[in-house]
Amino acid sequence: QAKVAGRNTMCFFDPAMQEDISNRAKLEIELFDAVKHNHFQLFYQIQVNHLQQPVGAEALIRWLHPQKGIIPPIEFIPSAEESGLIIPLGQWIMDTACQQLKQWRQNPTTQDLTISINVSAKQFRQSKFVEQVTDTIKRHGINPAKLKMELTESLLLDDINNTITQMHALGRLGIQFSLDDFGTGYSSLQYLKKLPLYQLKIDRSFIDELLTDKSDQSIVKTIISMAQSLGFSVIAEGVETLDQQQFLQGEGCLNYQGYLFGKPIPIDEFENLFDEMLGLDKPLKRSNQA
Ligand code: C2E
Ligand code: MG
Ligand code: MG
Ligand code: MG
């Protein structure tokens, strides 16, 4: 038996650490199995414009674990990235989103809807990513302009020149890019202007206290005017109240996503929500407007 370690000495066999490692290994094995058996589902969260009309959806993955139930992406995406399982999983996400776009294409009321998928760094950095996207779009016969990709600042910054080349190649296909969680990274104007982006997506953390926090207000205003001067569209995530939406609209942010309009939900529920919203000839409960 090892001697009891004194204070402040490094202990390589810390049982907590050991447990952590074996939990991670276990998760990876289960994840491998889940990818093999397709134990995932895409949920869709509605995105609307300032008239509160649906313009599209963000696809958000859920793991349907046979014992544990629905597992949120935060609990397995990092592990999927580390293990490389994000590659087959990312392909499945793209295929599923494209299948959905293909269905929506058949119907005049849904044909203009876009789907945004979240693309992780490892997936984006694959040498054959552009080929895979091209092939997927062709295989499903969809309009590439309806498939949007959400990238994060850290992904972009990691290898900026390669990123720009890759974005241009995908942009030529017709794909549009949204910069996710904007404001939480270290974007400089210097490189923002070089990126072939379509949209900035304001991070939820600036929206939460938007009505009371003056610095959040100025950050949000700055992001919006920056987007405007660079020619990007802007969308806010995490919009939960009508007051937040109206503040954003007043500052010129004309696209929104958040619980105010709908949570991420399975496709059949999403389509019901969509029908419901279309059925209204007036915007949803605009309480302080006549
Ligand atoms: P994200 O791309 O920034 O997605 C937005 C997250 O905010 C989602 O969490 C969504 O459910 C949540 N959200 C949206 N509106 C509201 C709101 O009004 N209030 C609150 N409190 N939350 C809101 P979710 O679905 O748990 O996803 C978390 C993160 O996991 C995503 O952040 C994204 O980075 C990642 N992720 C999700 N799906 C995928 C995927 O298919 N591929 C990859 N690579 N990452 C994914
Ligand atoms: Mg996203
Ligand atoms: Mg986001
Ligand atoms: Mg976020």
Question: Could you give the topology of this structure?
Answer:
Layout: H1 15-37, E1 40-49, E2 54-65, E3 69-71, H2 77-83, H3 86-105, E4 114-118, H4 121-124, H5 129-140, E5 147-152, H6 153-158, H7 160-173, E6 176-182, H8 189-192, E7 199-202, H9 214-230, E8 233-236, H10 242-251, E9 255-257, H11 267-279
Parallel strand pairs: 2-4, 4-5, 5-6, 6-7, 7-8, 8-9
Antiparallel strand pairs: 1-2, 1-9, 2-3
Helix pairs in contact: 3-5
Bound molecules: ligand C2E and magnesium ion (3 copies).
Write out key terms for the chains shown.
single chain; 290 residues; alpha/beta; eight-stranded mixed barrel; 11 helices; 9 strands; 19% strand; disordered N terminus; binds ligand C2E; binds magnesium ion
What this model shows, in words?
With 290 residues, this protein is α/β, with parallel strands linked by helices. Helix content is 45%, strand content 19%. It is built from 11 helices and 9 strands. It has helices at residues 15-37, 77-83, 86-105, 121-124, 129-140, 153-158, 160-173, 189-192, 214-230, 242-251, 267-279, and strands at residues 40-49, 54-65, 69-71, 114-118, 147-152, 176-182, 199-202, 233-236, 255-257. Strands 1-2-4-5-6-7-8-9 form an 8-stranded mixed beta barrel, surrounded by 5 helices. β7 (199-202), α9 and β8 (233-236) form a beta-alpha-beta unit. Mean pLDDT is 91; it is low at 1-6 and 280-290. The chain binds ligand C2E and magnesium ion (3 copies). One magnesium ion binds next to loops. This is Bacteriohemerythrin. Residues 24-278 form the EAL domain. Belongs to the hemerythrin family.
